Amino acid sequence: MATAQEPQRVSAAEFIRGFANWRLQSAREPVVVTHHGKDAHVLISLDDYRRLDGDTDDVAGTADRLQPSLAGLVESIRDGVILIDRQWRIAAANPAASDMLEKSCADLIGVPLTTAAPRIEGSFLAQHIIRLIDHRERFSGDIPDILRPRQWLRIDLVPTPIGGAIILRDVNGTMADFAASDARQALIVAVEAQGQIGRARISVREAVDTANDVLTGMLGVDAAAIRRVRFSALLAIGHRAAFAEALESLVRSGEPTRLASQIITRDGAAIDVILTIAEVRGPYASDGAVVLVTRRFA
User: Fold this and answer.
1) Who's near 255: CB < 8 A, 6+ residues apart?
2) Helix %, strand %, coil % for the chain, to 5?
3) Predicted model pTM
4) What architecture does CATH give domain 77-173?
């Protein structure tokens, strides 16, 4: 494989003495001029220099051509983008921001930001906009009630030459998911505190992933002993088929189901129980189920 050839090197003193020769050499390849043994200058031909200058012009030209593309990109993104000047007047807004503010882009130009979005005035966000304009300070965070009550927006503040850019993204769905997750966690804590409800998380193949202390106490085993064991194997033989059918029906319909059953303890005793089975649904498919176990008294 060919290797790059090292350029010719010449000391500054030799370069001065033999300038005519080195000038001719530089027409064929660059000549490196050294000073005290270190590379200091490079002599190249005029054509090579012009090619370098042309590359610079190409970069600048490419950057100029990209400007309309960048503007088009801002127009097409799903986030709302509002440009404001130092007096907080709206200088530009993309279609997403227009939809959020429920006004056309043309009607927003020149309008004070607090007129287009009155809830911003006096808000926590207003203080960050002041710092953005006065000190070019960036900000990113989730803030509620800026455009309408109980709506969460992800706000990014970015300094620009004319003032600043406000980037808005609706994260109401994400916040609702967080709230639902917190509610589910609170329910689990309540079940554990109640002390009489056994709980197991199982896979779509019935394998036990986790079990609480109430269930393991009923069975007389520790959690490690039943991990990855098929849940139906914990039931009396006569009740296993009914559980399997109930789980299959749950996966098909998504509807929780409830059935009478019996679990078998480590000592072989049968305990009458009620099983309540609810599906755990992932983004694309079933992730298994949660089984609640309560004693059944005749």
Assistant:
1) 249
2) 45, 30, 25
3) 0.52
4) 2-Layer Sandwich (3.30)
